[in-house]
Amino acid sequence: MLPAPSLRWYAIKLFERDEKVMAGFTLSADLAARLEGIISGCEEALDDDSESIITNERYTYLSRVMDHCVKKVRTGLSTSDKIDRIVTHRVFALPIFAAVMFCVYAIAMGSWPVSIGTKATDWTNDVLFAEIVPNFLNRFLLGADGAPVIAGWLYGLIQDGIVAGVGAVLGFGSWKPAVAVFTGLIAKENVVGTFGVLYQFAGELSENGDEIWGSIAGDFTGVTAYSFMIFNLLCAPCFAAMGAIKREMNSPKWTLGAIGYMCGFAYVISLMVYQLGGLLTGEVGFGTGTVAAILCLAALLYLLFRKGCQGDTLRLRAVDALRA
User: What is the pTM of this model?
Assistant: First the structure.
């Protein structure tokens, strides 16, 4: 005998042909055939399988409950809806899209007063990391006689390795790849299109961009090309993905932290590829940059192969205690 409060639940499970529930019943052939006939008749009448019928009824019931419990107040279109009505207009959508793309081009790599591509990259490499930052650090690292107040190797690591290294990775040896990195934040495939413009190809690029690779080869070697590609693959994603990160994390702090972590991780891996790969091919001499790359590699290997921290040990002990 089944308990009265559970009869409805068992009836639904039998209607859904739940294998585990049906295994607990011993039905005669006649009763099983009658039950199957009822279920098949319902499926044919409603043009759906029994499990989907029950699921749909659940949603219908919940909708009725929500209608009685929740009262929605219409407050007009949201800001996003208002923007969508304009930018997705059947007449104005394409002109607006063309105008936005033109502005992106003008700001990123044009020759207008508002263009910041070449100016920002040159200023970063030639002023910020070549003059401002080194001169600021020299106030603390050099004495009155102009000699370092710290060990020579440490001074070289800070000024020639870290400071100069940051500027070198940002420029990738040329301003054009750096501009492509910024436009790649809109969408990674924009890197190829940006190269097509910067390397002065007037026609339409093919999917693999064969028309410009000969010109690009003059600014890259095998190692620097790998370094550039790895940096772009591992750094911050496109703007759409950043928006999704912000929406899911619901925190500007954690969003900036996630984007900063990705860019920092991309920089470290790109640095190791260029320094260690260039050392093997003879393109890079052993110096402070190589030391920094070796230290980064050692840190990553330690993080990969270290034993579990104390928190992991406590969690494992808790799991063992529950199992016991």
Answer: 0.44
